[in-house]
Specification:
The chain is of the alpha+beta class and about 270 residues long. It has 11 helices and 5 strands; from the N terminus they run αβββββαααααααααα. A 5-stranded mixed β-barrel has the order 1-2-3-5-4.
């Protein structure tokens, strides 16, 4: 509940533009940098055009789906006014027909029109939120094989997980590019990792050093001589000795002294 409240507060305070995705102008599959054009439905900024160009580090967006993008408008010296995204949310359909169309789209492999109709007929127009909160409800849908039910739930979680992770990482001080890199590493487990052991970021995500992970650890209460903090400090010192100083091994006493200094330097 506390996490959801923080997301709501972030969205209330942030500048946003909401609209239907018209066309993807550019999408880099490696770093996920994306440029797309949307039909503007709503914004809390002083923008009056009917269409807008949106840029940021985003997954591949589905045309004709509606998204709310959080960020700010900036004037590009060559391409003009663009909305630079820090996070986003996909707007879920609110009517029965809208939910049927969504669930039978190409996003959900193996879920056709008839199956989508059965799901909505059984669970109602709030089917998506019900499934996310209680996936066992899919067992009540007639003629829905377990493998398709699992695939449908996993796909929903993957999309919802990305949106929540991007907003949460933004609140922790990570920019959109680094946030997307973290999400690509941990997928739907992103929030669990950063909230339980953020020091794993040092091991798994290029571009995140001990200091950055330690700041995050402090925010969630991993301080002092916490085992995860000590382990991350040891790995950081060893990696530094190897990649930057050219060592092929380090003596234990040297490593422990360096780790001790590192942990003390980063005291909050």
């Amino acid at each position: 509940m506390e996490e959801q409240n923080s997301l709501d507060l972030f969205e209330e305070q942030a500048k946003y533009v909401k609209g239907r995705h018209l066309v993807t102008i550019f999408h880099n599959e490696e770093n996920l940098y994306t440029v797309l054009r949307i039909r503007v439905d709503e914004t809390n900024d002083s923008y009056e055009d009917k269409e807008a160009v949106v840029t940021g580090y985003l997954p591949r967006m589905h045309e004709n789906d509606t998204y709310t993008f959080f960020g700010e408008f900036k004037d590009h010296p060559r391409f003009g006014l663009q909305f630079q995204v820090s996070s986003f949310r996909k707007e879920m359909p609110q009517t029965k027909q809208g939910v049927i169309t969504y669930l039978s789209s190409e996003l959900f492999k193996g879920i056709g029109q008839k199956t989508a109709e059965n799901i909505v007929e059984t669970l109602g127009e709030n089917a998506i939120s019900k499934i996310l909160n209680e996936p066992s409800l899919l067992d009540t849908v007639p003629k829905l094989p377990p493998d398709k039910a699992k695939l449908l739930y996993d796909t929903l979680m993957q999309n919802q997980g990305l949106e929540q992770a991007m907003i949460s990482l933004n609140q922790y001080g990570f920019g959109p590019q680094l946030s997307m890199k973290i999400y690509q590493t941990y997928k739907e487990n992103t929030l669990e990792v950063i909230q339980s052991n953020p020091y794993k970021l040092v091991e798994d995500v290029e571009g995140i050093g001990f200091g950055r992970a330690d700041d995050l650890g402090f925010q969630i209460g991993l301080i002092g001589s916490h085992p995860d903090r000590i382990k991350a400090g040891c790995l950081y010192v060893l990696e530094l000795g190897s990649s930057q100083e050219g060592h092929v091994y380090l003596e234990a006493e040297y490593v422990l002294n360096r780790v001790k200094d590192l942990l003390e330097e980063n005291k909050h």
